[in-house]
Design goal:
It is a single chain. This protein is α/β, with parallel strands linked by helices. It folds into 2 domains: 151 residues, Response regulator (Rossmann fold), CATH 3.40.50; 90 residues, Orthogonal Bundle (Arc Repressor Mutant, subunit A). 39% of the residues lie in helices and 22% in strands. The protein has 9 helices and 15 strands. The strands form 4 sheets. Strands 2-9-10-11-12 form a 5-stranded antiparallel beta sheet, with helices on one face. A 5-stranded parallel beta sheet has the order 4-3-5-6-7, with helices on both faces. The protein is elongated.
Amino acid sequence: MMNDTRMIMPERDVPRSTDEHAARSGDAIIARAGRILVVDDEQSIRDFLLFGLRDEGYDVATARDGEEALYRLEEFRPHVILLDIMLPGMDGFDVCQLMRERARVAIIMLTARDDVDDRVKGLMSGADDYVVKPFSFAELRARIEARFRNQFPELIAVSRVGKFEIDKTQKLVRYEGKALPLSRTEYALLETLLETPGVAIPREQIMASVWGEGFNGEDNILEVYIRYLRHKLNDSKRQLIRTVRGVGYRVDIQ
């Protein structure tokens, strides 16, 4: 049975690219830490999942057959693989078995055939989950998130905002790949600013988030810690952390 893009029904329009989405909405792109490889011989399905999952914040690559998928496995090092069974050359079962031998990955097999024997064969080949077309994008997204929770829990608390990477488990922020030497208060302040990049956060809201309601310390403490952050980010020109007069501060990601 041929794959059909109509079998996969999105619950919303999927933009053609994350860049286009950001330009249209004015929102910053907030990325997850996970990498997903989509393996399908139908370009329309590859593109649909590529743009849809990128819009969810994942780093995504694609492959059209088993040989290319195995190459991507080594080059891209995905965490989750969406693997169609009906592939030219090696079928999905053989590819799944080889991938399982070569890497620590979560494999979700995709197929239009709702056959018990196929499902059993897929699981016996090493698949972690099995999704039968048609399925909604929301269902697929939930299954992907379940794989990350179960098999890569260390990635759940990590997100990327522009050149920033925030690890909430370790209370760590990296900028341009380098860990910033932040105090507990500096981390809390930067995390607060990065929650809504490009949006001015009122001073009172920042104070309540970082120091708590009813803080009775120095009136200029926020300005002091903003200065600390700018110094550690080499932001002497105030291109990253901007003062919004009469409101508060915002982070402009680059």
